[in-house]
């Protein structure tokens, strides 16, 4: 399951308004690996992803699965059910559970080092894999890089996401039919006029901008992450201790398709309220 950014070519110019910043809370899980233990907090702000991860963890789904795709200064990926009994050297990443999770983008949840995020295949709704996830290692970013990412998100990802929502609303079925008809008929002038005169004003009226807070910028500049994935893949948790485990796994020798030469397995445990509170205190 690769990281593929879906691009919809819309000729949109948008007016941006200030977005509200929200922070999440949630339960604590423990991931034990061959290189040590990590504790992660799942976010209540992303309830669909939180509940799905807890469900799979409670069933023991993740136990003995591999971190099957590892790229240093980027991320470590796991959750492929086919990895449990995979022969050495076999490329992995296509296993799944037969369903996806709707994207849950929250501006305050971002791809800092240690972020728990949902992997996905290419799809216009950016729906997540039902089981595969990655944990960010990343690298430090500059203000200029973050400025460019903000601009791209606001003029691209945010607009595309809102376009999909608007065009698929039942009350806009006639608009969608006209849009698809112009596309299929290669009627570029009519399509551009529809976007400019009808769709663009609808998006502009609803769009809230994405902007990194001062604290987020400082984290990206001093600790690092993968900001270019923000608003494209759902962030639904965060490592609160065991960051060195990420670095150890990321540094292992890799073979074909970025699979570690030596299998790196996981075991996931949901901590009870008392255990979770202790881990939060150490944060």
Average predicted local confidence, pLDDT:
88
SS field, number of helical segments: 7
Can you write the helix and strand succession as a string?
EEHEEEEEEHHHHEHEH
Shape: globular
Strands of the biggest beta sheet: in what spatial order?
Answer: 3-4-8-6-9-2-1-10
Regions with little confidence, pLDDT below 50 for 5+ residues: 1-24
Largest sheet: 8 strands, antiparallel
Through-space gap between termini: 31 Å
Helix content: 25-40%
User: Cα-atom Rg, whole angstroms?
Assistant: 20 Å
For the secondary structure, the number of strands is 10
Share of residues in strands: 15-25%
Structural overview:
The chain has an eight-stranded antiparallel beta sheet with strand order 3-4-8-6-9-2-1-10. The protein has a two-stranded antiparallel ribbon with strand order 5-7. The protein has helices at about 45-60, 145-165, 175-185, 190-205, 215-220, 245-250, 275-280, and strands at about 30-35, 35-40, 65-70, 75-80, 100, 115-120, 130, 135, 235-240, 265-270. It is about 35% helix and about 15% strand. The radius of gyration is 20 Å and the shape is globular. The protein starts with about 25 loop residues before the first strand and ends with a helix. It has seven helices and ten strands. Helix 2 packs across helix 4.
Give a topology summary.
Elements lengths: L27 E6 L2 E7 L4 H12 L8 E5 L3 E4 L21 E2 L13 E4 L9 E2 L3 E4 L6 H25 L5 H12 L3 H19 L7 H9 L12 E7 L1 H8 L15 E5 L2 H10 L1
Antiparallel strand pairs: 1-2, 1-10, 2-9, 3-4, 4-8, 5-7, 6-8, 6-9
């Amino acid at each position: 399951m690769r990281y593929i950014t879906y691009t919809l070519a819309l000729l949109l110019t948008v007016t941006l308004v200030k977005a509200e910043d929200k922070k999440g809370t949630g339960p604590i899980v423990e991931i034990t690996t061959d290189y040590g233990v990590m504790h992660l907090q799942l976010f209540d702000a992303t309830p669909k992803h939180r509940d799905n991860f807890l469900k799979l963890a409670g069933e023991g789904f993740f136990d003995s699965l591999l971190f099957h795709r590892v790229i240093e200064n980027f991320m470590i990926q796991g959750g492929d059910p086919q990895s449990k009994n995979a022969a050495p050297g076999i490329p992995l990443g296509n296993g799944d559970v037969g369903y996806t999770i709707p994207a849950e983008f929250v501006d305050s949840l971002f791809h800092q080092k240690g972020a728990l995020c949902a992997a996905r295949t290419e799809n216009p709704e950016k729906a997540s894999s039902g089981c595969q996830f990655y944990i960010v290692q990343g690298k430090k970013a500059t203000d200029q890089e973050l400025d460019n990412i903000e601009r791209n998100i606001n003029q691209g990802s945010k607009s595309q996401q809102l376009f999909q929502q608007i065009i698929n609303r039942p009350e806009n079925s006639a608009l969608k039919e006209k849009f698809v008809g112009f596309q299929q008929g290669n009627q570029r002038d009519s399509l551009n006029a529809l976007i400019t005169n009808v769709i663009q004003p609808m998006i502009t009226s609803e769009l809230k901008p994405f902007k990194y807070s001062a604290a987020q910028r400082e984290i990206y500049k001093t600790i690092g992450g993968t900001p270019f994935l923000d608003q494209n893949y759902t962030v639904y948790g965060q490592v609160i201790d065991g960051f060195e485990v990420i670095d150890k796994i990321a540094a292992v020798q890799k073979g074909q398709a970025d699979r570690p030469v030596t299998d790196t397995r996981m075991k996931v445990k949901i901590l009870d309220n008392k255990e979770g509170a202790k881990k939060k205190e150490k944060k």
